[in-house]
Every structure is written in C-alpha cells, then in structure tokens.
Specification:
338 residues, alpha+beta, Helix Hairpins, Heat Shock Protein 90, 3 domains, five-stranded mixed beta sheet, two-stranded antiparallel sheet, 6 helices, 9 strands
Length: 338
C-alpha cells in the first residue's frame, strides 16, 4: 500500500480541541476496508514547549538548599543573636554598676549637708534669726528630697541586679496604714486635702519587710496628694481571698488611657500633659513617649511607681490601678498571707 504524505489545511473545527495545535502529521490508514485518519502532535513542537517549560520553571522556582546548608545558616544566626545578647547584658551590668557607684558617692556629701543644716537649726553655732531659720529649713527640705531621689535610684539598681534582700518580720497591716498616713498627714493638711484611713478590723498578720511596704504606701500616697487639687485621699486595707489588699484612692486628675503603658515604667511621669484645672489638657500631641519638653509641675523623676511595682512583686504580690480621667485614681496591691 502506497502512503502519500501531503499537507492538509486545518478546518476551524480543529480549534475546539483542548490543546492548541500548530502542526499535524496526518496519515491515511485503511482498516477492514474502511478509511481512517490518525493525527499526532509534531515532535519538534513538543521539544520546543518542553524547553520553554523548563526555562520558565528555572526562573520561578529557586533551587532547594540542602539540610546542612540550612543548619549552617541557622547556627550563624544563633551565634549572632547570642553575641548581641551578651553585649546588651554587659552594657546593662555596667550601667547598674555606674548608677550604684554614683549614688553612693552622692549620698555621702548629702548626709554631711543635712547634718550641718540640722546643727544650724538646733542652734549649735548660735541662735538664728527667723529668716535664717526658714532658709535652713529650705536647705533641709531640698537635701532630703535629693537624698530620696538618690535612694530610689540606688534601690532600683539593686532590684535590677537582684541584690536587694528583704528584712522579713511579722507585722499587723494596720501598723503600715497608720505609719504611712502619719508621714503624709502634714503634706495633706498643707494641700487642704482630707486624708482618710479605712482598715478592716481583725486582719491577719503578715510576714513582710515593713520598711519596703511602708516605702510603697508612701510612694502611692505622695502621688495621690501630688496629683489631687481638692477632695479626698484614702488609704486602707482589707482581707481578700488568701491575702491582704492595700489601696490608695484619690479624687485627682486621673490617668488618660493613652498613658496606660507608661504607668509602671522608669523615668516616666504621667502628669505633664495635664493641667491642674479639670477638663483642661495640654495641646501637646502624644507620639511614642510622653513629651519630655513639657514642664513637670509636680516634681519627681518618675521612679516611684516602677520601684513600688518591683517591691510588691518581691513580696510575691501584684499591683494594679483603676482610674477615670478627671475623677480620680485608685492604686491597689495584694500581699499573700504566708
């Protein structure tokens, strides 16, 4: 049988095929006396499409890395991260040591200044005129304020280095409340504020460091009086679950919601953007951190709350607060019963 090869013109119906065909090899075949036609894709077109597919896959898919390459890259990143962590740890240690050394060096001359001021006040070098007595009292007040700041920085440094030791003793919660209230009573009277104590009777005894918890209550009371123009400051304690809940409440300016993340941070004072007059806020925008360029009318360096939080946690307790802007704030902390 003679088979003749010839070109065949494709009809439009061939474009309905699922594959777009450019060239066909058509051969007439007879089977059982009936004519048939068999169509096949040209090999040249198939090879071209395979080469194009391989080229596209090379440009889109990156070669896979072997396991040992991935391990080596992971170890390099881990080593770099550990190196940075060691550097940060060394810097933190140097910073803490510097703060501790400077604090110790500052306390020595400050104690000397305060000692000489007390000798002058007591008339050891002769009687002072009323105006001189007033100046000496100002010297003592400023010196004590600066000494308190130095002590707070030193305490914070000790807490960060885990070097603070608690002097545990058995105390009654009412003793803490009365001692802290007595310490700030003159300041509350000077500001014409009502200082109220509310202590639940028959509270169980606590095993705590009296001086450190007294320091916490003193910080909270000082802040409450500082940020309250008029009204009441309340300090109290009550039984709550398996511990004692201490609280300090005021009717001051409150804390705005945007300052929540700064409440217990070191060296942040939350009040500079507020005016002492109610419903009046500074126009300074809040971007990132509280604006340091705004004057601090209330004094302090913003360590009291951070230090209080660390001291409470050192006793196994937790501190929190509830506030409403222009209506007041309540700070409270829970100390477990041993």
């Amino acid at each position: 049988m003679l088979v003749e090869s010839r070109k065949v013109l494709l009809k439009d119906s061939l474009w309905a095929l699922p594959v777009r065909i450019k060239k066909l090899l058509v051969a007439p075949v007879q089977r059982r006396g009936k004519g048939m036609a068999v169509a096949a894709r040209h090999d040249g077109d198939r090879r071209e499409e395979e080469r194009a597919s391989i080229s596209r896959s090379k440009t889109k898919i990156a070669p896979k890395k072997s396991p040992w390459q991935r391990r080596r890259r992971f170890r390099a990143r881990l080593s770099e991260a550990q190196k940075h962590a060691r550097q940060l740890e060394a810097l933190n240690r140097l910073q803490a040591e510097f703060i501790a050394n400077v604090s110790h060096e500052l306390r020595t001359p400050l104690n000397g200044i305060l000692g000489y001021a007390e000798l002058l006040r007591d008339g050891m070098y002769g009687q002072l005129a009323p105006a001189q007595q007033e100046v000496v009292e100002h010297i003592r007040a400023c010196g004590n304020h600066l000494l308190d700041l130095v002590n707070e920085i030193l305490d914070l440094s000790r807490l960060q280095q885990h070097q603070m030791q608690l002097e545990i003793s058995t105390i009654a919660p009412v003793e803490l409340i009365e001692a802290a209230a007595a310490a700030v009573d003159p300041l509350a009277r000077q500001r014409r504020l009502n200082l109220v104590t509310r202590c639940e009777p028959d509270l169980p005894l606590l095993r705590v460091d009296f001086r450190r918890l007294y320091q916490v209550l003193l910080n909270l009371l000082s802040n409450a009086i500082k940020f309250t123009k008029e009204g009441t400051v309340e300090i109290g304690a009550r039984r709550e679950s398996n511990g004692i809940r201490f609280h300090v409440k005021d009717t001051g300016i409150g804390i705005a919601p945007e300052f929540a993340r700064y409440v217990f941070k070191e060296f942040h004072q939350l009040a500079p953007v507020f005016s002492l007059q109610r419903n009046e806020r500074s126009a300074a925008p809040l971007k990132g951190e509280p604006p340091d360029g705004v004057a601090r009318p209330f004094g302090g360096v913003g360590l009291g709350l951070s230090l209080s939080k660390r001291l409470v946690e050192l006793h196994g307790g937790k501190i929190a607060y509830a506030t409403k802007e222009n209506e007041g704030t309540e700070f409270y902390f829970h100390i477990p019963i041993a």
